[in-house]
Amino acid sequence: MFSKPLLNHTIKSNFKLFGIITCILLLLITVIMSVFVPSTIEDIKNASVGATINPLGDISSLIAFIANQFYGMMAIIFPMIYSIIIGNKLIAGQVDKGSMAYNLSTPTTRTQITSTSALYLIGSLVVMFALIAFIGTSVATIIQPDVIDYGAFLMLTLGCFLLQFAISGIAFFSSCFFNNSSKSLSFGVGMPLAFFALKLVSGMSDKLEFLKYFSLNSLYDTTAIMDGEGYAIKLIVLAAIGVILYVASINVFKKKDLPL
Amino acid sequence: MAALKVEHLTKDYGEGKGIFDVSFEIERGEVFGFLGPNGAGKTTTIRHLLGFSKPQSGKTSILGLNAWVNPKQIQRNLGYLPGEIAFPSDMKGTQFIKYIADMRGLTDMTKANKLIKQFELDCSCDLNRMSKGMKQKIGIVCAFMHNPDVLILDEPTSGLDPLMQSTFIDLIRKEKENGKSILMSSHMFEEVEGTCDRVGMIKGGKLITIVDPKDIRHGQTKTFKIEFVNHIDFDSMIKENFFILEKKSENNQITLDIDDDKINELLLALSNRKVKFISEIKRTLEDYFMKYYEGGNRNV
Asked: Which of A107, A252, B61, B195 is the one with CA 20 to 30 A from A194?
C-alpha cells in the first residue's frame, strides 16, 4: 500500500517548508498564550471602546482572541500555503517535470505513490496541529493556568486541522487530476483562496453574509465551537469532504494517461 | 514467448498525432532499434510499454505480462532510460542512485558500482548542476543496475561524448551476449546501425518498415560520386541514361545510383571521358531511412 523509501524521501525533501510553517505557527501561539494575560486583554478592550468598527473581532477573552485571530486568520493561511505548495509538488509537479517516470520505473504502483504522498501530506498536517495543541496548552499552563478553556482550544485546533485536511484534499486532487503544474496550481490555489475570500467578505457586512454559504471555510465555525454546540456536524462534513477528495485523487491518478 | 510485444497499438491524439496500428515483437536476446524523426511516435509507443498510457486499441506486453495491467511485476525485470531525463532537484547523484535502489528493494550494488566506474561517473555533485551527459550516465546506471532481462532505452546516447558513446555500445553488446532483450529508440542512424539486429522505422505514427541493417549495407545498388576534368564531359554524361541523384555543374560533379549488373555500362561510359576521380558513397541506414522520411510525397 505504501512505499517506505518514497515516504522517507518525501519527508526529507519537504522538511524545510514544513519546518518554516510549523515554526511560524508555534511562535505565534506561544506569543499569544504568553502575552495576552487577562490585564492586557482588558487594556485592549478598553482601548477599543467606542470605536465603530473593531478590526480584531471579539477579543473579550483569550480564547475569543485565539478563535478570531489565530484560528480565524494565521492558522488558516499558513497551513493553506503549505498544503497548496506541497500538494502540487507531490504529484503534478513531478509529472510535469518528468521525474515521476523514475518512481514509476521501479516496482511501485501508481496507487502506492499517491497513497504514500497523501499519507505524507495528511500526516504532516497532523503533526503540525498536534504540535500547536501541545505547545499552546503547555505555554498557557505555564504562563497563565486556568485562564483558558482547554476543551474549546483543543476543539478549535481539531476543527482547524479538519479544514486544512479538506483544503489539502483540494490541492491534492488538483495535483492528481492535472498533468500540468501550472493548471494544477491555478485550481489548487484558486479554490481555497476563493473560499477564504468569500468567508472574509461575508463577515464584513450583513448584505454580504449570504456568501458564507459558498465557502468551505464556513464549515469551520469558530463561534459555534466557542458556544459549544452545533459545530460537530459541520466538522464531520469537512472530514468527509477531505476523505472523498483523497480517495478520488488516488482513483483519478490510477486510471489516467501520463505524459512521461 | 517474445520478450516484448506491441500488437496493433493505436493511440490517436487528434490532428494526425499519435500512433496508428503499430505492431512488432522483440525476441529474447535481440536488440531492436526504433528509428524515427522527432514526433514520429517513438516515445508514445514506449509510454505504452511502460504502462504510463492506456492503449486506445491494441495491446503491449513485456515478458508475457500486459503493460497497462501489471506494471509493478514488469518493472522488476525491466530497465528504463527515459528520453528526457528529469531528476528530483534536491539530491546528489549518489543519493539518487541509492534512492532508486531502495525503491527497487535492491541491495546488491555491484553492478551499479561497476557501471559508475565504466562510465567514469563522478556522482558526488548535485543533480541539477550536472551536465546533460552526466545526467545521462546516471540514467544509464539506474536502468542497468538491477540487471533486468528487458531494457527500454529512449535515445540512450544523447548527451554522451563519442568516447562514452562507444563505451555505451560495448555495454549494449555485452548485455546482448548475456541474453538481454533491448529496445532502443533513436533518431541517430550510427547508433542503431552498429548495435541492432533489426531496425523498425516509424514515421507519422505508423511503423513503415522493419529492416536488417546488414541487408542495407550489402544492397544490390551502389552510389558513386564522379567528377570530370571538363564541362563538356560532364554535360554529355548527364544526357546518358543513368539514374543521377545529384549534379553540381560548377565543379563538374555528379552522384548516381547504379545496379551491380549495370556497372559495366557505367565503366564504358566513363572510359570515353576524362574522369578526375570516382568514389563510392557507402549506403547507410540513413539513406534508406531518408527515402521513407522524405517520402510521403515520394513513394510511401
From this structure: A252
